[in-house]
Amino acid sequence: MAGAEVEKKPTLEMVQADGADEGCVTFVLHEEDHTLGNSLRYMIMKNPEVEFCGYSITHPSESKINFRIQTRGGLPATEALRRGLNELSDVSQHVLSTFQARVQEFKDQQDEPMD
Amino acid sequence: MAAPMSNVDEIRNRVILGEFGVRNVHTTDYPGNYPGYDDTWNFQKFKKNFRIDIVQMDENTMEFDMVGIDAAIANAFRRILLAEVPTMAVEKVFIYNNTSIIQDEILAHRLGLIPIKADPRLFEYRNAGDEEGTEIDTIQLQLKVKCTRNPRAPKDSSDPRELYLNHMVYSRDMKWVPIGNQADVFADASIGPVHGDILLAQLRPGQELDIVMHCVKGIGRDHAKFSPVATASYRLLPEITLLQPVEGEKAERLKRCFSPGVIELENRDGKQVAKVANSRLDTCSREVLRYDDLKNLVKLGRVRDHFIFSVESTGILPPDMLVSEAINVLLAKCQRFINELDSTDMD
User: Fold this and answer.
1) A41 neighbourhood in chain B, CB within 8 Å
2) Which of A64, B226, B240, B254 could anchor a disulfide with B218, C-beta 3.0 to 4.6 Å?
3) Do A88 and B73 make contact, defined as CB atoms within 8 angstroms?
4) Tens of pLDDT along B279-321?
5) Where is the DNA-directed RNA polymerase RBP11-like dimerisation domain positioned along the sequence (chain A) (predicted)?
6) Residue pLDDT, tens place only, A16-69
7) Between A and B, how many residue pairs show a Cβ–Cβ distance under 8 A?
């Protein structure tokens, strides 16, 4: 298994304890740090069906994080993760469009007095 | 003065600067934490409250307010600006000759840190182990300088500027050598150092530099030379509330506790009365809390979801472009994991 991992670098792995249900999962996010970890944790904790969400950086010289999700009421942890990612994506999209609109307004305003 | 806030709202929305420490630091508005509040994620509510105001912008710096977003996400943008927006920088230095006083490795390091004006979005990352660059992932620069005596120098001069030619090597001496079709593709891009007046080395007659450099695309997480910003930071909007009217000598002293322009004095019925004019200017030094008779008259806080961003570019891309790119990087991160979830559908 270790050999296969070296060949194609995994981006996402799932770790589950024996006998745990699908609501309690630790995801290993490769090549990520606090940037995605903390913002994603915030979005997932905003979900009332999530009982616990947290992450840890395994070691400073390993570029991966352990991202733990525990849910209530039988919601699969993958669904909570997917929802968090989609919501974070929507937020970023909205921030981007707002920012670009404001920058355009600002530039137009600066051009005006010169005419 | 702001309308008084309920205790719970204050804990949720303000960071309090106390005499012995900062209180209510962490975000606590998660579902289930506060009875009577619906803290479930609501995109419509977010859209309604969210706003951005551009305060100042020129070709290299900008300041803007981002209001109505959590620190976790604002911090992600800041971190990406510092470490994950790609740029081009010198990565490989081929030294054919260096007879100057400055050692090869020091010179190579200096060359690496020079910002290179080239749009990183038009280039690809070089593959690991790839020694030979191609036109899509490499910019080639050449530095070839030889110092000589100035034959036209005045006889009695002792000034090196008059005695020698080419004794100061500047970044403007790094000349772009196009590879493949680059001369056509980047004809009007003028690839080269952003600043021409960075001193690289000093030479004396007979000494010379003959160097070829390869610039590649990279990110600040790998090496700080790839960071596209000089600084990118945010601070929370300070909020100062006067709890009681402050008059006379106390008002004068109160004014001096804050940065200029934060507190102004108003003449009301022949008395000087302090009022908060612009709390944004405050540095949050908490000087006022050192005065026993003043510290209970004011409340110092910061608005938890009001971020004053300041972005300073190294000159490679304009700052508004950098922020847009940073947000795109976060979008790409989300997409990468959404795709991974979709493709494997985790067994």
Assistant:
1) 72
2) B226
3) yes
4) 999 999 999 999 999 999 999 999 999 999 999 999 999 999 9
5) 24-97
6) 988 888 999 999 999 999 999 999 999 999 999 999 999 999 999 999 999 999
7) 119
